[in-house]
Amino acid sequence: MIKIGDIEIGKFPLLLAPMEDVSDPPFRKLCKDHGADVMYTEFISSEGLIRDAAKSVKKLDFYEYERPLGIQIFGNEIESMRQAAAICEESNPDIIDINYGCPV
């Protein structure tokens, strides 16, 4: 059994990657219906979240049936990432994934 923290995701899990303009709610529903074990929202800019940009904030929305669900934030400033992670926690995802590797 493979686990991410307390989340058991099976022996051969299928995870939906956090893809910009792809892993939106309709696509996540389709993937869940076809066996995805873990869902991710589209990846979210830490700067967009802390500036309350509508496009970034909207990506925090998800449905309970999508669980287990992760939110990936990206950025390159420690303080912005900390603040963005705190904002993500308010949505109560199962996973908060930190991506310092994507250029901003």
Supply the number of structural domains: 1
At the first level of CATH, the class is Alpha Beta
Flag low-confidence runs: none
CATH topology heading: TIM Barrel
Order of helices and strands: EEHEEHHEHE
CATH architecture: Alpha-Beta Barrel
Rg, alpha carbons: 13 Å
CATH superfamily: Aldolase class I
Please explain how this structure is put together.
The protein has 104 residues and is α/β, with parallel strands linked by helices. It has a single domain, classed as Aldolase class I (TIM Barrel, Alpha-Beta Barrel), CATH 3.20.20. Helices cover 30% and strands 18% of the residues. It has helices at residues 25-33, 46-50, 54-58, 78-89, and strands spanning 3-4, 7-8, 39-40, 44-45, 69-74, 95-99. Strands 3, 4, 5 and 6 form a four-stranded parallel beta sheet that branches. α4 (78-89) links the parallel β5 and β6 (95-99). The model has no long low-confidence stretch (mean pLDDT 94).
Quick structural gist:
The protein has 104 residues and is of the alpha/beta class. The protein is built from four helices and six strands. Strands 3, 4, 5 and 6 form a four-stranded parallel β-sheet that branches. The protein has a two-stranded antiparallel sheet with strand order 1-2.
List keywords for this structure.
4 helices, TIM Barrel, about 100 residues, alpha/beta, two-stranded antiparallel sheet, 4-stranded parallel β-sheet
Helices, strands, pairings?
Layout: E1 3-4, E2 7-8, H1 25-33, E3 39-40, E4 44-45, H2 46-50, H3 54-58, E5 69-74, H4 78-89, E6 95-99
Parallel strand pairs: 3-5, 4-5, 5-6
Antiparallel strand pairs: 1-2
